[in-house]
């Protein structure tokens, strides 16, 4: 099977690289502000996601127990009328695997999961999220941009994560030091005709947490 391999070079300070299937515990090291999980994905799946009509892309937000996520993910894709095929099965399994590994890393029973279809300049300002840790993966379109900045300035050097590459990012609620100067944003795409499919996963205290 033909594969598309994602590779990142010359990452900002505090960003670590590792293979997708490797242990995520490295993220807890004091000098790790973000962890990029490099991997290979089926070329046919990439092409299918790129060519899928926008109104068939899944979109939804939910807070749920980890053991309910398989059903939740399938329902989000079905509500969005995403065609049932091998590529959809790959996407559902991939989201579930990342969610389960993220939950295990963070020691939580509950997660907030969000799938968004984006065609505007969402979160166009560089920032850190008001969470402990966030997992982001852009399955279609331009992916997250990162860089080091201080004094509320934009980074001088901006690096863009490859599409379909998951990244773990520390938020402002992460209690350990040293303080991270790593910031990120969604790429500005308004007016380009591009449509992104974005996955965001956060921890939750209970299934009743706001989404």
Please, could you describe this protein's structure?
This protein has 211 residues and is an alpha+beta fold. It is globular, with a radius of gyration of 16 Å. The chain is 19% helix and 29% strand. Helix 1 crosses helix 3 and helix 2 crosses helix 3 (86-106). The protein contains 3 helices and 12 strands, in the order E-E-E-E-H-E-H-H-E-E-E-E-E-E-E. The termini are far apart. The mean pLDDT is 91. The strands form 3 sheets. Strands 2-3-10-7-12-6-5 form a 7-stranded mixed beta sheet.
Question: How would a textbook summarize the main sheet?
Answer: 7 strands, mixed
Q: Low-confidence runs (pLDDT<50, min 5 residues)?
A: none
Radius of gyration equals 16 Å
First and last CA, distance: 38 Å
Instruction: Going across the biggest sheet, name each strand in turn.
Output: 2-3-10-7-12-6-5
Counted beta strands? 12
List keywords for this structure.
19% helix; three-stranded antiparallel beta sheet; single chain; 211 residues; 12 strands; alpha+beta; 3 helices; seven-stranded mixed beta sheet
What's this, in brief?
The chain is an alpha+beta fold and 211 residues long. The chain has 3 helices and 12 strands, in the order ββββαβααβββββββ.
